């Protein structure tokens, strides 16, 4: 009626880019599922003023720009100043007969902003509460600094910087003071909020003045999304022991039963290890509490394994040697009643390798919860054509119960359905091709295979291996231009952490290769390479439905789960991948013959490590690999600066932890099988249907039901709450008739 176009408005809205990659997006899917399952759940985090940087590609290099996502306001959030809470930093600890007191602290206020999280068609609306840092009004104006009023007001920025910007590292730990402040800030505000809510409920019954916390773990479950909120464990202990005056053992029992910890990575450089000196300066009481936790923990181990000093060293929360550090993963394991990985293979590695000593001690503590994605965003919203086609065949209920997709197996030989699935994919490709041509000024052949590799740029994800395959395809076309070649559009996208030199060089290399390939007349429309700028959720929603081939090619044992892999599967792409993360379970669900699985398994990688990985051996044995590397090294893709990529080549030969050369041959051969199948459109589409039919397990609804039953001990409810306009007595009548649980 206003003459506005809804799609145009949607395009204008900024992404809330408040996470780095899979871990942040997983939390968003989990919030959607928790609301849809009717769980009384809250998501807590930081309201960063600047989210993940906007990526610009200039002359083939990544350039970062600040993500000023709040510039035009955010209509979905509501500030809640009435729930503002103080958070303390620095200071010192006084010990008195009454117990420890943390004094002379600096105070920062945490101002909550609430965003509604609606469940799918069930009238449930949960809350995501994000904290923003505010300086108190007397900041720097009490005690010292009395004279310089102007400077004191300007210094308020120091406190408010806590929620200024998201650290842009994915799978990498940067031990900066501001980052530790952020971690404690979200934890301290959230725990106060949870305890306030508990005390206000009928469960927080007070005998005279003191609250009885015995029922706390029965009413509250806190899931630690990686170790980033690990300070919640000593913080809850501080509240119980110092403020609520509980005895240590009781406080510890309640704390352990409240927390559960999800591990998201096994890469050593990603594990948080905070220097003791930094924690002592910023959170002196918490350090004392961590020491006490550690002492009791080590006493317990020594009682079971007497005289095993090496075991004590391995399992300590404190790492000696060089600067003393706190191992936050160890703190999380000791302070939680459940620990889980995010795919079967990852949970196995967690149990038998990374945290083996802890699993020997308490095997029942370790679980698996394979990740999932919300089908509301990742099918209905981003691919309405496919969603509708599925609904025509099996009804609409699958949106809430994705396991019903197995019903599609009945239609795998239905010629009309096969044609319609192919048609939806083609329409999505044409639409995305138009978008690419508008944004990148390159002519895209919509009948070419869309080969897509989108995720954060990291050596372990092996975008370099994809790049070597592109160069190999290019060389094959040049060698024999008349030979049949299945046309491809290779799309690679993702952000590199600003301080990650190698990742930035990989982006430059991809763009340098694209420049050569896309402008070679011999190649023409057979092969196009595009680096997708500023990959983010809103762009994923465009590219994923248009993808034919999904690249999931991490070295076996490095990608904890992956979730992009699931999004592609649900949207009718086929997967080329290693037996890593959730790829293993995707192959298990669909049948390994319906994925393009290649390369070393975890055991092969271990065996190669044992005998020693020698990159030169592969280079000398594989002529096409040698040619590609020689071209990179010789400046074929950087004629103005022939040794531009010397760091990349040097890494590949001398310190490639992720063994790109070892999987190159199997990868290229597997890609030939992909091209061969793509020639047979009907056989390809049948395999697509088998994949979609097997994708049901990978709904985050299933994941959340498992967390709810195995870890949080709550029952999901598929009840539709009546809308607010329906009188409440009608609800009570229904309950009496036994129609409501």
TrEMBL record:
One of its GO terms (cellular component) is cytoplasm. Gene3D superfamilies: Glycogen Phosphorylase B. Residues 718-741 are annotated as: Disordered. It catalyses: [(1->4)-alpha-D-glucosyl](n) + phosphate = [(1->4)-alpha-D-glucosyl](n-1) + alpha-D-glucose 1-phosphate. Its cofactor is pyridoxal 5'-phosphate. InterPro entries: Glycg_phsphrylas, Glyco_trans_35, Pyridoxal_P_attach_site. It is an enzyme of class 2 (transferase). Residues 726-735 have a biased composition (Basic and acidic residues). Keywords: Allosteric enzyme, Carbohydrate metabolism, Glycogen metabolism, Glycosyltransferase, Phosphoprotein, Pyridoxal phosphate, Transferase. The modification N6-(pyridoxal phosphate)lysine is found at residue 567. GO terms for molecular function: glycogen phosphorylase activity; pyridoxal phosphate binding. Homodimer; enzymatically active. Interacts with PPP1R3B; recruits the phosphatase PP1 which dephosphorylates and inactivates PYGL/glycogen phosphorylase. NCBIfam families: P_ylase. Allosteric enzyme that catalyzes the rate-limiting step in glycogen catabolism, the phosphorolytic cleavage of glycogen to produce glucose-1-phosphate, and plays a central role in maintaining cellular and organismal glucose homeostasis. This is Alpha-1,4 glucan phosphorylase. The lineage of its organism: Eukaryota, Metazoa, Chordata, Craniata, Vertebrata. The gene is Pygl.
